[in-house]
Amino acid sequence: MKRSEISCFLLVLGVVCCGSASAQSFTFVPDDTVLSGQLGSEIVFNITITNTSTSTLTLALVRTLNNLPQGWESSMCLDVCYPPTADSVLTTPAFGSSPLNPGESRPFSVHVYAATNHGTGTVRIVARNTHNAADQCVLTFTAISLPTGVETNAKSAASFTLFENYPNPFNPSTRIGFQIADYGMVRLKVYDVLGREVATLLNEVKQPGAYTVQFDGNKLSSGVYFYRLNIGGFVATRRMVLMR
Q: Which residues of 192-201 are buried (b: 16+ CB within 10 A; e: fewer)?
């Protein structure tokens, strides 16, 4: 697969898009890319940044898309939290932060405040090496507000739930659970950090209900993987770690 094909595929997946996988100096890994919450709540997306290079790394974190319903706001937190008006921050003392040392991991988070008006908001963050513009990763987050007392038969994101796998980290197998409220074609697949499909766990029609699928990572190397549930127009992605 060509580099351009990898970048496009990963952007559609909504997990991570790396401009130059062969020269990547860091990883930018989310716990979730789709979350929901009640109106008036704060929806928080947690991401882990890791410097995988042998040099100190300064990153720029840029909000390139902030498509939110009227009355909503989003903001970013690194070592400190920044106001909703801040579209870019750097891992430098000027932003209350510091460059990442080799091998260092640091939490980063995107906060969406669903203050008024129900709807769906999208925020896109680009993490970029300040010394190499091609060395970047892109994450797109979707926040959904849920009306209080949603009917059980309402067709909303609340009707389709992808649970965290257990155990996580795992070796060599783990269980992935999900719940669906409608009859339909269910696809559950596993990808590596480059967006390459490594396993298809489900690709069949399912009745409404709760399900658990076993994933065996015996043939895979240690590292971060993503599992993605797709049913109808609902897509959710979660992160898991295979640790030998």
A: bbebeeebeb
- Residues 98, 74: Cα–Cα separation, whole Å: 23
Which residues have CB under 8 Å from 235's CB, separation 6+? 14, 34, 228, 229
Q: Which domains does the chain have, with CATH numbers?
A: 3-146 (2.60.40.10), 157-242 (2.60.40.3080)
For 166, which DSSP code? B
Q: Specify the pairing of strand 105-113 against strand 173-180.
A: unpaired
Is the distance from CB of 215 to CB of 190 less than 8 angstroms? Answer: yes
Q: Is the pTM of this model over 0.85?
A: no
**Cross-strand bridge partners of residue 106:** 49
Residue 1 burial class via C-beta count within 10 angstroms: exposed 0-12, middle 13-18, buried 19 and up: exposed
Q: Express each pLDDT in 54-76 by its tens digit.
A: 999 999 999 999 999 988 999 99
